[in-house]
Amino acid sequence: MTSALFPTFARADLAFERGEGIRLFTPEGEEYLDFASGIAVNSLGHSHPHLVEALTEQAKRLWHVSNIYEIPEQSKLGERLAAATFADVAFFTNSGAEALEAAIKTARRYHFANGQPERYRLITFEGAFHGRTLATIAAGGQAKYLEGFGPKVDGFDQVPFGDLDAVKAAIGPETAGILIEPLQGEGGVRVVPNAFMRALRDLCDEHGLLLILDEVQSGVGRTGKLFAYEQSGIEPDIMAIAKGIGGGFPVGACLATNEAAKGMVHGTHGTTFGGNPLAMAVGNAVLDIVLAPGFLEHVRDAGLRFKQGLARIQDTFPGVVDEIRGEGLLLGIKCKVPNKDLIEALRDQHLLCVGAGDNVIRLIPPLIIETPDIDLALQRIEDACAAVAGAQATVEAGQ
């Protein structure tokens, strides 16, 4: 049967009808450990009772009214995010790509408001992924996402990952800011060193630039801090978030200081669905859990146990595992075999993960994961590595 969908996804022949906690279930009742989390989206797992209650209660009252009117839950979520971060204000969106679009526009308008409209260019980094819109694929700079979509949107100067001298050389009279993920997810679970983040902050202060962070994947507790930038002790001027803040419901936000957002006056930007009552009810429910005492400590402890277990597997299977990367519960295995081989072997073990650049697989379970499921996952990862190593040995013997 011919599909009525765009053929833009290479989908696995696998479907699920329900989820509970860190588990997904097929229509036939087969159970899988979900270490993909909808690509770092289901931060509190599937069917979390607090999120279900918040959404259903809001759905009974009001779904959508548009931003023509006050939306009290939107103001509440904005105030809570501002209180917990560097930010003063928030603009709510439906996705990470939209949050990045808002961040890019905010940076450009800041310099426009300062009487320097020529300052519109952003320095970005190789391996970055910022979304699928025309502007965000230009910001990411990856050829595979740019191909076939016409001229690349102007305004982005890409430099090698981690190369401070290249950043300095790229700064010019048209530079508006620096855009970076504190931890590249799609790019291969590559952590930006704290010293490099501090150096970028210093460069921005020295040259009057805005530091813009993409924490769409690394934010909302994923690294064991509410946001990954906290690890380095710096603060950005603008930050894009999404994924985990909605716990599975489409929510994104652009956060900024009052100074950075001063150009975003009435009529300069807008959204139809962003910040609607349903999304805000869920976002506030997510913060109820993530900001509760002890939650982020739990993420740090779980991440440490998981990473230590993966390191033991690396020692056991050096022909399969090259390196363990990441922070908190955003971890990656850099493979010595094609990463798709390990992804398929893990799926055979009923553990779901997701690929990344640099021949890496991402392991991004819900933040609510407990010790017994970490240990079960480690056993399944070990079994998958054994299967891959065995297949590799068979091929080598046949040669």
Describe the model.
The chain contains twelve helices and 17 strands. It has helices at 37-40, 49-61, 72-84, 96-113, 134-140, 143-146, 164-170, 194-207, 277-290, 295-316, 339-348, 371-398; strands at residues 18-20, 23-25, 31-34, 89-93, 121-125, 156-159, 175-180, 183-184, 190-191, 210-214, 238-241, 252-256, 321-327, 330-335, 351-352, 354-356, 360-363. The strands form four sheets. The protein has a seven-stranded mixed beta sheet with strand order 4-12-11-10-7-5-6, with helices on both faces. Strands 1-2-3-15 form a four-stranded mixed beta sheet. The longest helix is centred in the last third of the chain and has 28 residues, at 371-398. The two termini are 40 Å apart. The mean pLDDT is 97.
Shape type:
globular
CATH architecture of the largest domain: 3-Layer(aba) Sandwich
Instruction: Compute the number of helices.
Output: 12
The average pLDDT value, as a whole number, equals: 97
Could you give the order of the helices and strands? EEEHHHEHEHHEHEEEHEEEHHEEHEEEH
Radius of gyration: 21 Å
Helix content: 25-40%
Q: How are the strands of the largest sheet arranged? A: 4-12-11-10-7-5-6
Number of domains: 2
β-strand amount: 15-25%
